[in-house]
Amino acid sequence: MQVTMRSENHVGYVTLSNPPVNAIGQALRQGLLEAVRWAERDRLDRVIVFGAGGVFAAGADAKEFDSPPQVPHLPEVLNAIDESFVPWIAAIEGVALGGGAEIAMACRMRIMAPDARIGLPEVTLGVIPGAGGTARLPRLVGLQKAVEMITMGKPIGAQEARSAGLVHAVEDDPIEAAFMVNSEELGCIVPTWEFHAPAHDPDLFHMARENLKAKMAGQEAPLRALEVIEAGLSLPFHQALTQERQVFLELKTGPQAKALRHIFFAQRAAKAPAHLRGVALEVRHAVVVGGGTMGAGIAYALLAAGLQVTVLEADAAGLQRAEDTIGKLTEASLRRGIIDAAQAADQRRRMTLSTQYSEAASAQLAIEAVFEDMAVKHEILAKLEAVMPADAVLATNTSYLDVNEMAARLMDPTRVIGLHFFAPAHIMKLLEIVQGAQSSDRAISTGYALAKRLGKVPVLAGVCDGFIGNRILARYREAADTVFMDGSTPWDVDEAMVDFGYAMGPYEAQDLSGLDIAHANRQRQAPTRDPNRRYIPIADRMIELGKLGRKTGAGWYRYPGGGGKVEDPIVADLAIEEAHFAGMSRTDYSGPEICRRLLLAMINEAADILDAGIAQSASDIDLVTVFGYGFPRWRGGLMDYADSLGVKAIVAQLEILAREDPVAWKVSPLLRRCAEAGQSLAEARPKL
Ligand code: T1G
C-alpha cells in the first residue's frame, strides 16, 4: 500500500509511502483519491497527510514519463483534495518537490519542518508543473515569487516558504502541530483554487522572459512555464489547469525532457558496480600533496565533506599559499551562506599543513596534486608509500599522465588509482576514477565511496592519454583549430558552440585555463605524434607571442581590464598567415557547419574511447561531458545527443569529411558496427 489511512478522534492520518522518496506513481495517486473519499465518508474533522521515511514526496515518478499517463491523473486527485469538505493539512518533512509540492498546495494548510525544502523543479527535467502548480503557486505566494520558483526550478527552505506565504507554520513536529491546529481557524481557510489569481503584470513577464532567454538560452520548459503562468491568470482556475496539463504533456515527450531525464537517471546510476560495494576503505583522514589551485580545491572539498585533511607542501611558502587559498574558499562559502562560522571553525580545526610526510602516517588516502611531471610524482608517491599504512590508497590527480607507470614504480601498485578532479575541485561535480591495470577493487571502491561522500558524479575511466574527458577535449580543440585555420575565427567558433548550448566556446574556455597547459601536452606528445596527422601550428604561435590567456591579459581574446574580452585581429591574422605558408586557400564556415564538425570530432573520439573500454558506457561519457566539460545538460550529453542524430547519419557525415582528411576523420569502428547493426550508442559496449 503506497497510501495508508487511519483515523483517531476524527482526525485522519494519510501516509505516503513509496520508498525511497515517495515518488508519485499511479498507485500513490489512486491511494490519495481513495483517501479523499474515505475522509468524507467518515466525516472526519481533518486529514493530516505526510510522507514516510522523513520525506514528503519527491514529485511525480519520472520513470512513468516514457509511458502513457495512467488514471487517476494527478490534477484530478489534487482537485479532489482542494475541493474536499474535509480540510487537509500537509505536514512536510524532507522534501516536497514537483507533484509533492502540488499535493501540499492543494491542501488547506501547510506546515513544514525547519530543515525541509519545497519547490517546483520540473523545468530541470524539461517539463513544467503538470498538476496545478502554475495556477496554485501564484495564488499563494504572488506573481514574482511564483515566476521565480517555477521558471528557475530552485526549491526553497522552510523559513523562506513561511515568509512567502507558501506555508502557514514551521514546526519541529509538523504532524503534531497539524493535530493541534484549531478547527475554527482551519475552517476559515478557503480552498486554494478559490484564491484570487494575482493581477497581470506585463513588465514582470517581459523582464522574466528576457532573463530566461539570457540565463537559460535554448531551454524550452522555463519559457513555456512563463507562458502558462501568464495565460492562466486570465483563465478560470480549472481552464488554467487544462492549459497547463496540455503543455506539460507536450513537453514530457519532447527531446529536451527526454535528454534531461536521461542525465537525471544516468547520474543516479553512477555508483560503484555491485562487486565493488562494501570493500571500500573508510577514509577519515586524507592527505593532499600540493597546495596549488587544484590541491587546495581538493583539500577544501574534503574538509567540507567532514574529513580530517593534511596538506603537504615542499616549503613554508607553499604552505602559506595553500593556507591562503583554502582560507579564501572558506570565506567565499561563509559569504554565500553555504557554511556558518561554527562549520568554518570546525573545518579549520580538521586541517593541518605540513612539510613532513610523517603526518601522512595515520591517513587512509593520499591524493597527489602537484604539477604534471612524472619524476616528481614518482618521488611523492614513493615517499607516501614509505610512511602510510599498507592498506592506504594512493591517488593521483593527474589529468593526462600514465597511472600505470606511476603505480609500477611502487612496492604495491594495487593501491594506486587516479582521482581526476576538475577545477574548481570543490564545485565541479565530475570525478574521473582512473583504474590502473593493477588497481585493486578496494582502491577503486574507495574512490567511489569518496565520490559519494563529496557529492561528486563518479565515472570509471581506463588509462590512456587524457582518460575520457580530456581525450575528447583534445579532439574538440583540434577540430576547432582546424576550422579556425581553414576558414573561421576563434570568436565565430565560440559563438557557434554557445548557440549550441555551451556556456562558453572552446577558445574563451582555454583563455580561462591557460594556453600553456595544452602547449605542454603537445610538447609531451610530440615524440609519439602521428606524422600523417595534420598539425595546426597556430596555438604554438600564440605561446611564442606570449598570449597565454586571461592570466597574461591576452590569449585568443584580449582582456583590456574590467572583465570584458575583445576580439584580437592579430590572432585572426595568424590563421591567414599560416594558411599562406601552407599554400592553401581558406573557406568561410557557417556557425552550424562549425558546430557540426566539432561535435562529430568529439562523437568519433568518444566512440573510440568506448570501443577501447576506457569508458564503460555511453551514458558514462554523457556524465563526463555534462558534469566536466559544460556540454548542455538539456541535450542529454554527447552520446545521447549523437543517438538523437542517429548513428547511421553520423557515419555518413564522417565518411564525407574523411574525403577531406582521412586521418583526422577516420570513422570509429564502433560507430560502423552500431550503424550496421542498427544499434544505438546507448546499447553499445566495449569490444572486449
Ligand atoms: N521519479 C522517480 N525516481 C526518483 C525521483 C522521481 N521524481 N526522484 C528521485 N528518484 C529516485 C532516484 O532515481 C534514486 O533512485 C532514488 O530516488 C534516490 O534519489 C506532476 C510532473 C528527491 C532531492 O525533479 O531532486 O513532479 O538510484 O539519489 O540525493 O508537476 O532525488 O536509488 O534507484 O537523488 O537524497 C519533479 C527529483 C518531478 C525531484 C532526493 N521532482 N529528485 O535526492 O536521492 S516532475 C524532481 C530529486 C513532477 C509534477 C511534475 C532528488 C531528491 P535509485 P537520489 P537524494
Structure, described:
The structure is a single chain. The chain has 688 residues and is an alpha/beta fold. It is 49% helix and 11% strand. The chain contains 29 helices and 19 strands. The chain has an 8-stranded mixed beta sheet, with helices on both faces. Helix 13 (293-304) crosses helix 14 (316-335). The protein binds (2S,3S)-3-hydroxy-2-methylbutanoyl-COA (T1G). Residues 20-21, 23, 58-63, 74, 95, 97-99, 102, 121-122, 124-125, 127, 129-131, 133, 265, 268 line the site of (2S,3S)-3-hydroxy-2-methylbutanoyl-COA.
Question: What keywords describe this structure?
Answer:
single chain; 688 residues; alpha/beta; eight-stranded mixed sheet; 29 helices; 49% helix; binds (2S,3S)-3-hydroxy-2-methylbutanoyl-COA; 3-hydroxyacyl-CoA dehydrogenase, NAD-binding protein
Bound small molecules, deduplicated: (2S,3S)-3-hydroxy-2-methylbutanoyl-COA
Number of strands: 19
Derived from helix and strand composition plus strand pairing, the structural class reads alpha/beta
What radius of gyration results from the CA coordinates?
Answer: 28 Å
Shape: globular
Number of helices: 29
Residue stretches low in confidence (pLDDT < 50, at least 5 long) are none
* N-C termini distance: 45 Å
The major beta sheet can be summarized as: 8 strands, mixed
Give the neighbour order of strands across the main sheet. Answer: 12-11-10-13-14-15-16-17
Mean pLDDT level: 96
Catalytic activity: a (3S)-3-hydroxyacyl-CoA + NAD(+) = a 3-oxoacyl-CoA + NADH + H(+)
GO molecular function, one term: NAD+ binding
Subcellular location: Peroxisome
Pfam family, one: ECH_1
